[in-house]
Design brief:
Layout (H helix, E strand, L loop, with lengths): L25 H22 E2 L1 E5 L2 E4 L14 E4 L2 E4 L5 E4 L3 E4 L10 E10 L16 E7 L8 E8 L20 E2 L7 E2 L3 E3 L1 E5 L9 H14 L3 E3 L4 E4 L4 H4 L4 E5 L8 H12 L3 E6 L4 H13 L5 E2 L8 H4 L9 E2 L2 E2 L1 E5 L2 E5 L16 H26 L10
Parallel strand pairs: 13-15, 14-16, 14-17, 17-18, 18-23
Antiparallel strand pairs: 1-12, 2-5, 3-4, 4-7, 5-6, 8-9, 8-10, 10-11, 19-22, 20-21, 22-23
Length: 402
């Protein structure tokens, strides 16, 4: 799986070969110093991910008096001083407050999401060159209503509503409303995780296939605080059995639940087989009474020549039991221990584990039950990511050809 913050290109560094009598001109001086800049930026990219280091707050302000009267509306904000680091490892330093007009118009009746961003500007890329001996590295603020460029750092977002002109602070900073400054989605510069784990729910003919969908998001959110080496996406995806192999490949793990027996066409079976052989994992989470689903999962595994084996019969150091969290007895869900069977990339859980990954309707699940279930869920996601990595490392790598 690709990381949302890709590593630097796999290319060797070249540095100036120093020798007596070497003539130093502007080009060679630049080459010598660019080498150190590139090494520093590459070091950051390899070990960290981009984001805001400090500051860069945003507050609503009246329109500055120096602007023309027709631009003096209530859609001005002031960006506070601060520091960020972008994807390429460049430091973005904003030394003074900056007044910024949010002037994108809402063209129809639907609200418009506007993103305020900052990006690094290399003085060498500017058209107007400074004639002084030193130049200051600088930055640029932008506003967008579409996907951000990979080099941009989000400062805030604002959901603009038709007819409402003023931008304001939210009454509740955690739940901003229309025309409120929303700081909840800012990324902080921090240590880079080993991987971003992606999972998707498999939609099929069973009407109960989506009953745990929201709990998948709770599990993804729990990964970072429980095991910082991995992170989860903001949301789980959704795929159907008829999807092409390339769609399945977007995910480390496919989650499937319900009651009814599984049924595959030859094409679907071949796609699933290729997905499992490439390192993907299919997690079937069956309630205790879902006999048709349980039996058909066993049949599927046998058809793929990988009959399922109880976890208790496998090695005691199996990663599902030991990495990163150690389990002797398995979690108890609905007053009975769950069962785990696995082989060939298929994991069958009998006991409805995902029902304890999030909030139940009555808010009665004990904290210990939720945490224990989530820790086993992290073990499963870690296993899925690691299995895919190990199998992928035994195949041809095209990254060096880029």
């Amino acid at each position: 799986m690709s990381h949302p913050f890709p590593t630097p290109p796999i290319q060797p560094f070249e540095r100036l070969q120093a020798s007596d009598g070497l003539l130093i001109n502007a080009e060679r001086w630049r080459k010598a110093h660019n080498y150190h800049r590139a090494r520093q930026n590459t070091h950051y990219q390899c070990l960290n991910q981009p984001g805001i280091v400090c500051g860069l707050g945003v507050r609503d302000i009246p329109a500055p008096s120096k602007v023309e009267a027709k631009y003096r509306d209530g859609r001005w904000v002031q960006i506070q001083p601060g520091i960020a680091i972008d994807l390429a490892g460049n430091l973005i330093v904003v030394p003074t407050p900056y007044d910024f007009p949010v002037d994108l118009e809402v063209a129809n009746t639907e609200p418009l999401m506007v993103y305020l961003t900052v990006s690094y500007i290399d003085p060498d890329d500017l058209r107007a060159r400074d004639s002084r001996d030193t130049v200051r590295e600088t930055y640029r603020f932008d506003q967008r209503n579409s996907t951000l460029d990979i080099s941009e750092i989000e400062i805030c977002r604002i959901l603009l509503q038709t007819g409402q002109k003023d931008i304001t602070q939210p009454a509740d900073a955690f739940f901003p409303g229309y025309n409120n400054i929303n700081l909840c989605f800012r990324r902080q510069a921090q240590a880079r995780p080993q991987a971003i784990v992606r999972l998707a729910q498999v939609d099929h003919s069973d009407s109960g296939c989506d009953r745990n969908f929201f709990n998948l998001a709770y599990l993804l959110q729990s990964i970072e605080p429980l095991y910082s080496y991995l992170r989860g996406t903001d949301e789980a995806g959704q795929v159907s059995l008829s999807e092409k192999f390339q769609k399945f490949q977007e995910y480390d793990l496919l989650y499937l639940t319900g009651q009814q027996a599984l049924s595959f066409t030859n094409v679907e079976l071949e796609t699933l087989k290729n997905y499992l052989n490439s390192g993907g994992v299919l997690l079937v989470d069956a309630p205790v009474d879902a006999t048709p689903l349980i039996e058909s999962t066993h049949s599927l595994a046998e058809q793929l020549k990988n009959p399922l084996k109880p976890l208790a019969e496998l090695r005691r150091d199996h990663p599902l039991r030991t990495q990163p969290f150690l389990f002797a007895a398995l979690p108890i869900i609905n007053q009975r221990p769950i069962e785990i069977l696995t082989n060939g990339g298929i994991i069958l859980i009998i006991g409805d584990l995902a029902s304890a990954w999030g909030l139940d309707k009555e808010l009665t699940l004990p904290r210990l039950v939720i945490r224990t279930a989530q820790e086993l869920g992290v073990n499963i996601l870690n296993y899925a990511w690691k299995r895919r990595q190990l199998i992928g490392l035994q195949q041809e790598d095209d990254s060096g050809k880029w």
